[in-house]
Amino acid sequence: MKGRPILFESENAVESAQGLFWEKGYTASSLSDLLTATGMGSGSFYNTFKGGKKELFKKALLQRRAAFNKFKEELDKQESPIELIKDFFRSTATTDISGHLKGCIIANTIVEMTFLEQDLLEEATAIMKDTETMYTAAIKKGQEDGLIKNQTDPAILGRYLITFWAGLNVLRRIYPEPEILLEQIELQLKVIS
Fold first, then answer.
1. Stated pTM of the model
2. Is-contact 139 80, C-beta < 8 A?
3. How far apart are CA 145 and CA 138, in angstroms?
C-alpha cells in the first residue's frame, strides 16, 4: 500500500519557501515557518526534500540561477546589452518597500553562509561570479562599439558592478525612497557610460 499522494507541486513549494528565505535568511527560517510557507506537513516535506531545509534552500538558489539565465538570454539578444543592464539597476529604485528590505537573496546568502554552509556559499558565489562575467562581456562589447568611453579593463568594471550591487542592496534598506536611490544609481552608472 502506498502512502498518501503528494498534493502539491515541488516547484510551488520551492517558490513559496524562497520568499521566506529571502525575507528571513536560511538560519532564521524554522521548519515550522517552512511548513507554513509551503503548506506542507512534515512528512510530505521530508518525503519531497530528503535533504530537509538545506535541500530546499539550494533549490531556491537554483530558481534564482534560472532567473539569471533568462536575463542572460535576453541580454544576448540585445544590440546594446549595456542598456539592459543599466535598466536593471534603475528598476531597483522603484521596487516596493518589501523588496528594498529583502535585498538580493544571492548577496544575502553570500554574507550569511560565509562561516555556515560552504556548499550554499559556493552556489551563491558562483551565481554572483557568473553575473560578473556577464557584465564584463557586455562592458567589453560596449567599449568595442564605442558606447562606453571608460576604457578601464572590462573585468575590473564588471567587478565594479558587483560591488555596486552589493552596496546598493544595503543602501536601499537605509534609503528606500525611489528618488534617492535613482540619484545614486545614475551616479554609479556613469562609470559605464
1. 0.90
2. no
3. 10
Residue 152, phi then psi, degrees to nearest 5 = -60, 150
What percent of the chain is helix, strand and coil (3-state, nearest 5)?
80, 0, 20
Provide CB contacts within 8 A for 138, sequence distance 6+: 75, 81, 82, 85
Residue for cell digits 535541500?
55
Per-residue confidence band for 88, with pLDDT thresholds at 50, 70 and 90: very high
Q: From residue 104, give the alpha-carbon distance in Å to each of 6, 111, 143, 148.
A: 31, 11, 28, 27
C-alpha cell at 164: 555596486
List the domains of the chain with CATH numbers: 1-63 (1.10.10.60), 78-192 (1.10.357.10)
> Is the C-alpha dihedral spanning 193, 83, 173, 164 positive or negative?
negative
Residue 146 makes CB contacts below 8 A (sequence gap 6+) with none
Q: What would the grid cell of residue 105 be?
A: 537573496
Q: Which of 34, 32, 30, 28 shows the shortest CA–CA distance to 14?
A: 34
